[in-house]
Amino acid sequence: MIKKLKYVFALKCPKCREGELFVIRNPYLLKKLNVMHKNCNVCGLKYSREPGFFFGAAYVSYALQVLLAIATYFSLSLLSKLSVNWIFVLTALVMILATPYITVLSRSFWIFFFVSYDPNNRRVK
Ligand SMILES: [Zn+2]
Could you tell me the distance, in angstroms and rounded to a whole number, from the CA of residue 6 to the centre of ligand 1? Predict the structure, then answer.
């Protein structure tokens, strides 16, 4: 499970764990945010399994944002002596700054839910 998460966070293909999911690895280049390869360049897996496949990633994105907000809020509450207003401001700032990465990460989580690792299914180059 932990090993699988490593590849989710690295935005790798869920089937071979080598190919890149996204055309540009840096999600903070916002013009290319969410631009994915159609197929894995290592194993040939088609990433968008059906039209609208990645709509479900919005639920994952929402859950990740809520978890991040809760973690940030309670971390700042416990570890700092800031006022509640400053904690809210900083929590909102962290959420805004994390949004591009969470957007691509949620797609990675979503496809990892549906595709299993298969190290033997590699396309011959
Ligand atoms: Zn692959």
Answer: 15
